[in-house]
């Protein structure tokens, strides 16, 4: 029997959940299809539990800084409170009952299973056909990429979905991939006593960040005892009692666990996008500035390729929901897309990096100021590593990008995100009063540098 609704949502990630609830709340008949957990990757295997890990690891990191500032401490890390907090507070035992109830209370209907577009306006879940009168919305998210390294597939490697539920910190860990996922986990486990080695194939860690940011973070991680190999290819992986990773150089590294953190992938073929004329071999679904992907089809979240962040997914959900309701006045504008990598120091970015700006033939001016020599950085002392880098469009006299590497760098970024978003003229920023002695006051030094 075919069932009809106004809107069928495939995938209840942060954006899908938000959009489905918004539309059901205003009286549309909404069917949401979810194959795993309502809420998606973020609350169960990504942002939320990993930031609980980071919070705990940062407490250990700060405690270890006490001898340089305030006397003596003895730090004996214990993973149990972290594992318990993730199980009980973050994920309620990887159970989505609360999220399901929240959605059903809006009047929406949840269907468990894998959804596939089988014709325009038609979604099939385990043989049951649903017709969407107004919209199909795709929010399928991504899965971890597992590189085709000889032997790897036959080993009990971890991805983020295994590392988050870990009940103890491993004795040793090889991390494949030096991007945000790899580095956040690397530092967390290292601070809990795990001997961590990061293997990154690009010439530097955080290869898409500003090189100055990579440099500071790499030095900070190495200073904590994390081994980082860059420009490094793994040829073969074996597992008996331990993991063994053979590098191109012939060296063999061993560890109790191996975490694959080499990026994310989509499977558009499985989603059946060809049925609505979309390229099923593509890596992302192209959308216009109202998230329209095809006639009667909207896509939101990681799958659109506009930044794999929860805030992207939720931003796009708001715009798509308004468009579906015919009330869309807002169009997507990604110029001031922020992101924060929660290492210590945090790496916070908004807008364009210098190299991205140059690729666009913008007349670029940049300025970089070191944080340790700012008043607050000097007072902070141990743990004060960082920089602020500004990227300006010299012709227009506005900032188009910024990177903050600092303790609480994500919070410092707020001011610069406003500047990029609202295109505040640089000369107007120069007239601001920056509170003394804050980390964000270093923005003033960077602006001075930009003027010089
Ligand atoms: C370890 C880690 C840490 C991260 N930390 C942060 C962070 O601190 N801040 C941040 O902003 N971002 C972070 N991210 C990224 C963030 O998790 C994602 O950007 C976010 O989850 C948004 O994804 P999404 O909305 O595209 O969908 P997802 O959250 O991936 O959810 C998609 C849902 O769709 C379901 N689904 C897929 N296909 C189908 C189908 N055919 N039928 C039915 N259901 C389907 C899936 O089961 C899933 O539940 C992190 C990612 C990782 C891996
Ligand atoms: N705090 C945050 O906002 C946050 C945190 C984690 C993840 N995320 C999001 O999740 C997405 C995925 O993150 P990620 O770190 O998995 O992916 P990524 O693509 O950002 O980084 C993966 C890294 O692995 C390297 N790599 C790939 N294959 C390799 C191999 N065979 N050997 C060694 N290195 C290899 C790549 O060169 C790259 O540097 C990111 O795009 C990010 O937006 C966000």
From TrEMBL:
<dbReference type="Pfam" id="PF02852">
    <property type="entry name" value="Pyr_redox_dim"/>
</dbReference>
<dbReference type="InterPro" id="IPR036188">
    <property type="entry name" value="FAD/NAD-bd_sf"/>
</dbReference>
<dbReference type="GO" id="GO:0050660">
    <property type="term" value="F:flavin adenine dinucleotide binding"/>
</dbReference>
<keyword id="KW-0670">Pyruvate</keyword>
<keyword id="KW-0547">Nucleotide-binding</keyword>
<feature type="binding site">
    <location>
        <begin position="177"/>
        <end position="184"/>
    </location>
    <ligand>
        <name>NAD(+)</name>
    </ligand>
</feature>
<dbReference type="InterPro" id="IPR016156">
    <property type="entry name" value="FAD/NAD-linked_Rdtase_dimer_sf"/>
</dbReference>
<keyword id="KW-0520">NAD</keyword>
<dbReference type="GO" id="GO:0003955">
    <property type="term" value="F:NAD(P)H dehydrogenase (quinone) activity"/>
</dbReference>
<protein>
    <submittedName>
        <fullName>Pyruvate/2-oxoglutarate dehydrogenase complex dihydrolipoamide dehydrogenase (E3) component</fullName>
    </submittedName>
</protein>
<comment type="similarity">
    <text>Belongs to the class-I pyridine nucleotide-disulfide oxidoreductase family.</text>
</comment>
<keyword id="KW-0560">Oxidoreductase</keyword>
<feature type="binding site">
    <location>
        <position position="51"/>
    </location>
    <ligand>
        <name>FAD</name>
    </ligand>
</feature>
<keyword id="KW-0285">Flavoprotein</keyword>
<dbReference type="InterPro" id="IPR001100">
    <property type="entry name" value="Pyr_nuc-diS_OxRdtase"/>
</dbReference>
<feature type="domain" description="FAD/NAD(P)-binding">
    <location>
        <begin position="6"/>
        <end position="317"/>
    </location>
</feature>
<feature type="binding site">
    <location>
        <position position="115"/>
    </location>
    <ligand>
        <name>FAD</name>
    </ligand>
</feature>
<dbReference type="InterPro" id="IPR004099">
    <property type="entry name" value="Pyr_nucl-diS_OxRdtase_dimer"/>
</dbReference>
<feature type="binding site">
    <location>
        <position position="302"/>
    </location>
    <ligand>
        <name>FAD</name>
    </ligand>
</feature>
<dbReference type="InterPro" id="IPR023753">
    <property type="entry name" value="FAD/NAD-binding_dom"/>
</dbReference>
<feature type="domain" description="Pyridine nucleotide-disulphide oxidoreductase dimerisation">
    <location>
        <begin position="337"/>
        <end position="445"/>
    </location>
</feature>
<feature type="disulfide bond" description="Redox-active">
    <location>
        <begin position="42"/>
        <end position="47"/>
    </location>
</feature>
<keyword id="KW-0274">FAD</keyword>
<dbReference type="Pfam" id="PF07992">
    <property type="entry name" value="Pyr_redox_2"/>
</dbReference>
<feature type="binding site">
    <location>
        <position position="263"/>
    </location>
    <ligand>
        <name>NAD(+)</name>
    </ligand>
</feature>
<feature type="binding site">
    <location>
        <position position="200"/>
    </location>
    <ligand>
        <name>NAD(+)</name>
    </ligand>
</feature>
């Amino acid at each position: 029997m075919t069932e009809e609704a106004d809107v069928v949502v495939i995938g209840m990630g942060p954006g899908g959940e938000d959009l489905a609830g918004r539309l059901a709340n205003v009286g549309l008949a909404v069917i949401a299809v979810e194959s795993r957990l309502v809420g998606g990757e973020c609350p169960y295997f990504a942002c939320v539990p990993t930031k609980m890990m980071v919070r705990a690891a940062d407490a250990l990191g700060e405690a270890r800084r006490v001898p340089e500032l305030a006397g003596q401490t003895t730090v004996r890390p214990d993973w149990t409170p972290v594992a318990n907090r993730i199980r009980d507070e973050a994920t309620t035992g990887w159970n989505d009952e609360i999220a399901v109830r929240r959605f059903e209370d809006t009047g929406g209907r949840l269907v468990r299973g894998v959804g596939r577009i089988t014709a325009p306006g038609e979604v099939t879940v385990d043989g049951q056909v649903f017709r969407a009168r107004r919209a199909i919305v795709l929010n399928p998210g991504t899965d971890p990429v597992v590189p085709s390294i000889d032997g790897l597939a036959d080993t009990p490697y971890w991805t983020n979905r295994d590392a988050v539920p870990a009940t103890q910190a491993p004795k040793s860990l090889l991390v494949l991939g030096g991007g945000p996922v790899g580095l956040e986990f690397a530092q967390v486990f290292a601070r809990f006593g795990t001997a961590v080695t990061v293997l990154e194939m690009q010439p530097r860690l955080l290869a898409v960040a500003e090189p100055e940011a990579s440099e500071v973070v790499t030095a900070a991680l190495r200073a904590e005892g994390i081994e980082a190999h860059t420009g490094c290819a793994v040829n073969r992986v074996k597992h008996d009692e331990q993991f063994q990773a053979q590098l191109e150089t012939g060296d063999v590294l061993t560890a109790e666990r191996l975490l694959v953190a080499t990026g994310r992938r989509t499977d558009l073929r499985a989603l059946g996008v060809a049925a609505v004329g979309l390229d099923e071999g593509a890596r992302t679904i192209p959308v216009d500035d109202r998230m329209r992907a095809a006639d009667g089809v909207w896509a939101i979240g990681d799958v659109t390729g506009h930044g794999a962040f929860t805030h992207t997914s939720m931003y796009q959900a708001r715009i798509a929901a308004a468009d579906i309701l015919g009330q869309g006045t807002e169009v997507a504008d990604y110029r001031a897309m922020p992101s924060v990598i929660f290492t210590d120091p945090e790496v916070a970015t908004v807008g364009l990096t210098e190299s991205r700006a140059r690729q666009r033939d913008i007349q670029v001016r940049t300025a970089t100021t070191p944080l340790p020599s700012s008043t607050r950085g000097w007072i902070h002392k141990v743990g004060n590593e960082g920089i602020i880098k500004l990227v300006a469009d010299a012709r227009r006299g506005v900032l188009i990008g910024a990177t903050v590497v600092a303790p609480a760098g994500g919070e410092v970024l707020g001011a610069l995100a406003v500047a990029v978003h609202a295109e505040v003229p640089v000369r107007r920023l120069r007239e601001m009063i920056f509170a003394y002695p804050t980390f964000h006051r270093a923005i003033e030094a960077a602006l001075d540098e930009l003027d010089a």
